[in-house]
Specification:
Layout lengths: L10 H24 L4 E7 L6 E7 L6 E7 L2 E8 L3 E4 L8 E7 L6 E6 L4 E7 L3 E4 L10 E5 L6 E5 L4 E6 L3 E4 L8 E7 L5 E8 L2 E8 L3 E4 L13 E2 L6 E6 L5 E7 L3 E4 L8 E7 L6 E6 L4 E6 L6 E2 L46 E6 L6 E5 L5 E7 L3 E4 H7 L8 E2 L1 E2 L2 E3 L5 E8 L2 E9 L14
Antiparallel strand pairs: 1-34, 2-3, 3-4, 4-5, 6-7, 7-8, 8-9, 10-11, 11-12, 12-13, 14-15, 15-16, 16-17, 18-19, 19-20, 20-21, 22-23, 23-24, 24-25, 26-27, 27-28, 28-29, 28-31, 30-33, 32-33, 33-34
Length: about 450
Amino acid sequence: MNNTSPGRNSPVLISRMGVLHLVLLLAFSLCNNCRPIGATFTGLGAAPGDKFSQAWAVSDDGRVVVGSSYVALRCQAFRWTVAEGMVGLGVLPGCSNSLAKAVSSDGSTVVGISYSDPPHHAFRWTAASGMVDLGVLPGSSDSEAVAVSSNGLVVAGDCFRKLAGFRWTAATGMVGLGFLTNYFGSQAQGISSDGSVIVGRCHSDSGAEAYRWTKAGGMLGLGPCSGGTLGTPVFVSDDGSVVVSTGISSSTNALPYRWTAAKGMEWLGTAPEYTMNVATAMSSDGTVVVGYTESDAFSQAFRCAAGTGLVSLGSIDPATGRTDNTYGIRNRRIPPRVIDRGPDGELRGNKILGPKVDTVAQSVSADGSIIVGRIGSEEVGKFFVWDRTNQMRELEYVLTHDYKVDLAGWKLEGERVRVSADAKTIVGDGMHNGHVEAWVVHLDKSVNAPVAKGPGK
């Protein structure tokens, strides 16, 4: 019997299916071009029995976040992963609190401090060993771990009572770094990827000096102007060859500098109208430095790359912000302003661009392309994200507008924000239904990708 309806293998049906297939492909392609860039936003919650949490650091690939979870006056360090969620790391024997200060590049090792009043002891945590007490140097009763090598095997930190920096390995235990001549105390602040170089600052009654320590050469002072003021950090590149910090110039202004063995200490630029110019982070190779410039009136975040001097990341314009008068800058692109061309001191651009709203750069990706920081002069504020394509924008707006993230119940404002080395993860603090809570956002594309647009838009 002949069946006049198109069969499964009928050329007519195949032709119709082919057309339908092409239509569906075209529709999918257009839809795909219109779709928002994907992102996953996660509130980290709190450890069992706690109410609040704050994020301190993130692994290079963004898979591990570390910080502290709180309730009342007690806190404990935590480690968070997608698979396990938040895991409290506990405390050392005789202590009631712990704080995570740093995490290894692969996220396997967490270091920090566990304390009561007293003692205060540095710890190192791994899944295999749990929280291990790193001890103290002879003559001291307190210690704190502040940095860890990429593989987690070398730890750097301080012993406060003895005012001495240390380097720890399982083989050597805690070893003091010593002091520069005419200084009575040292403080470790950074470590190279392989743990062979430690940087920090030495102190005396008359001032401070930054140092670079190696096992072979011991402690090398970077110059009498390199110490800056108490509390300004010292950074080191992954390979240990570049040191970045903030020093005091001959004009008594605080200025960022870069040090290498070949060129010594080099000022990164001058900004006469600003009395404080502070480096707060650097790219993995030290070629990009970020921070903030500060005058009596306000501060602005800056980025400094080779040959550029200190370049402002822009200014916040409240006129384009939210109706509740927060510091949103929405999607408006505000051109950067050059604070200074470089060491020659030649200024370019207007002295002040836009309204006087403070911005502070706090973290930068490994390649220097993405910068995140805080908006506002208070210790707690909203956050911004900067990239070359879009310039400075409010982070909360970028997530809700570009990435279509649902932030119902959240206000992304807090003390600190961090971007992972690969620029695909941002972590920070926020207010979630009235409570302080750490959060993490994983991006499936870099934040500097242009906003996707559909046909005719």
